């Protein structure tokens, strides 16, 4: 079995020899593996943590971004399947929720279905509604993203950084908007847990129950303060909940 290649799709944030479970995190549009840098401090013993690094950001900034959720999941899953054996708990936020779901399908089809899938700040597959923000003019596009709270003020105010980040952000949001689940895909059997931030303008809470359709197993929902980026609120509590829900 191979170890994590730090230039590939998966980054180790908390390494554990022979972990009881491996938590795998998938970031939001424009996000990188460092979005989960506060998680290791909240992990209990025996749990390792890795995060997916999409191309076009962080140490992969020089690579062209990828705007296909299914293809992104396939590449991430391929690296996870080469790691030393461990049960997986997948956590995806926003775009990452869809990539995590597709990754769970690939792992399932390879005989390694995750122990649990956790999805956050995302409508269920096939219910997205074709948001076209990725087609908006630069000023409107940037203002919309800054308004959601996912871009730090120092970056939001920098014209130079804006120009550097816009292509990757557009690619990610295009991937999110154009994603469609494959017809006839059998449901997962693992538990699925959904996290929703109160006041999230991008997610209709009433539609989140439809995530139950992606599994024949248990579906549960938690509502947290913090809007679309609720993952930045009560990080320790969130991590404890993800891990606690891991060993079903």
Mean pLDDT: 89
Q: What value does the Rg take, in angstroms? A: 17 Å
* CATH second-level architecture: 3-Layer(aba) Sandwich
Which regions have little confidence, pLDDT < 50, spanning 5+ residues?
Answer: none
Percent of residues in beta strands?
A: 15-25%
What are the secondary-structure elements, in order, as H or E? EEEHEHEHHHEEH
CATH class: Alpha Beta
Q: Biggest β-sheet, characterized?
A: 7 strands, mixed
* Shape category: globular
- Count of discrete alpha- or pi-helical segments spanning 4 or more residues: 6
**What's the number of structural domains?**
1
How helix-rich are the residues, as a percent range?
A: 25-40%
- Major β-sheet strand ordering: 1-3-2-4-5-6-7
List how many beta strands DSSP finds: 7
Your description of this structure?
- This protein is of the alpha/beta class and 248 residues long.
- The protein has a single domain, classed as Alpha/Beta hydrolase fold, catalytic domain (Rossmann fold, 3-Layer(aba) Sandwich), CATH 3.40.50.
- It is built from six helices and seven strands, in the order βββαβαβαααββα.
- The protein has a seven-stranded mixed beta sheet.
- It is globular, with a radius of gyration of 17 Å.
- The chain starts with 9 loop residues before the first strand and ends with a helix.
- The model has no long low-confidence stretch (mean pLDDT 89).
